[in-house]
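Help!! Second protein's tokens look totally different from the first
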Amino acid sequence: MRTLRLIIFLFIAAAVFAPLFPDTCRAADSEGKSDARVSDMGAKILLSRAERGDTDSKLSVALSYAQGKKGFPKDMAEAMKWFLSAAEDGNAYAQNFAAAAYAKGDGVKKDERLAAQWWLKAAQLGYPEAMFNMAACCSKGFGVKKDYRAAVDWWLKAADGGHPEAQFNVAALYINGSYLEKSLKKGLFWLEKSAEGGNSDAKTALAGYCYHGVGLPMDKGRAARLWGEAAEAGDVFAQKNAALMYLRGDGVPADKKKFVKYTSMAAAAGDLDSIFNMGVIFENGDGVQKDAERAWDFYRKAAARGHSLALKKVDGAKKNEGSSE
């Protein structure tokens, strides 16, 4: 399920596979025939173990079918048969995977209720990803009765379990004072944890607090690093902020090449201001060789989407062309 995003308002402008140690070749020959498509000897042995009830082997077979690897054909329906078998054995990873398959209708008929049931089983076993998904179920009423208080409880448990996206949501809850007592200190604690876990949303948010010194010592160098990391992960807001810092030399040495790099990334993602700025970059030769043709390509692209400055520039050029004729 997609992450439930909680908004933080900032103050800134602009698969584990079991080892294949064959018991005997005889077992592979006799048991592996259940699926004639499996001809690889190692795959036969693994399938034989799964058929004899070994949970780790069931999970490995399920993953192999799901990925179409390790000598198995890609077959999500067959994968689900083995995921469900491992899930019934109490394997939390298999339970989480089965839940996701039911949620999407991947290899089985879509069933929100069964998805929530399997996520609950895995969550109760302490699997952080399932806890996070169970929180999403409760917050949206997906397969269960909508209960935001229960969602918050699951987010807290998932955060304690080290889930970066849950940690980000808990941070937002504390910072906004939503369902949890408002506390910037606790919010920043979880924001730090989430950022350490690689969550780009957390890095983007944390950079804003570092930039302004709100709740943390002002550290524009760290803000630039965090925005740079989030930018590389595709966060457009971070790309634009990193670009501005390197353009202005704000807390970091001015670097027009990095300014161009991050502006280009944001423009490629469709950010309208960045598309216009790429026109300015090529027109002025800011960190690149001047190229009037490319500049006007960007201006026209921005104007076509209604950017006011681009429209004025394009209209002005048309008027000049008309008056010169």
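Here's the second one for comparison:
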Amino acid sequence: MQKKLLASLLACALAFSLAACGASGSTSGTEDAAPAEETEAADTAGEEETAQAEEPAAQETEDSAENVELVVFAAASMTETLTEISEMYASVAPNVTLTFNFDSSGTLKTQIQEGADCDLFISAGQKQMNQLDINADPEVNTEGLDFVDEASRVDILENKVTLCVNDDNTAGLESFDNMAAALQDGSILMAMGNSDVPVGQYTQKILAYYELDEEELAGSGVISYGSNVKEVTTQIKEGSVDCGVIYCTDAYSDELNIVDYATAEMCGQVIYPAAVLKTAAHPAEAQAFLDYLQTDECMAVFEAVGFSGVE
């Protein structure tokens, strides 16, 4: 009897002990879960705060980029091509607004020298670029001007000098040889650019090649002048002159008839240099656009109107 009683007491003690351990384990598990949940919540809150801090910074950068206005001074003969390329560039650099100033390279050079806002300059001749480049021959840069970022300067295009007539071509001109002979006998009126305009300077070389005296011809009334190549083109198109000397790109744009091309012996190569200016408000964006102008995509636009790459 005593043995049975002792066994019963031992069993009760064991059961009580097991129940106590179970309760202790359950409490411990609950206590362990609470810190884990608190840590996860803290991490989530930290991530949200970080995201909120980064968002304004990114937005500020984007807004700042949208305000960039890039001012490009370019020769008048590039009006159509650069206008088309500007539409293409809008998808490449949507944060950049391109503002163009098209005119004769001599006029653009003077405007830059006088302090006009300009980030990128594209000239139709080396002379006007050299006049702004401190590293150029002092005999060309006679005023010691220092506007050109030499590291950015590059020859990007070559054009051709042409003799053009309108559809009527009443003088029956077929070549520069015809033009030279007709100028000598005073039977035609020819349009050319002023002496400060690259296309005018190329025409002067052609006249010298034929040993013609420009001053004498002008005095006899057989030469009409234009302040840029577009003005010369207009005179040909309207028929106010018998012929004119312009670039093949302008002849293409205005659908004029090209009767002859000047050779390098007659007037040299027609090279278009470009450079970022030291006074540029946005030199990085100017360099980026200059790089874009040299891509295959842009060269296809230039070549379609008669330009070619410089070899």
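Reply: Different proteins will give different token patterns, so don't panic. Residues 30 and 191 are 98 Å apart (CA to CA).
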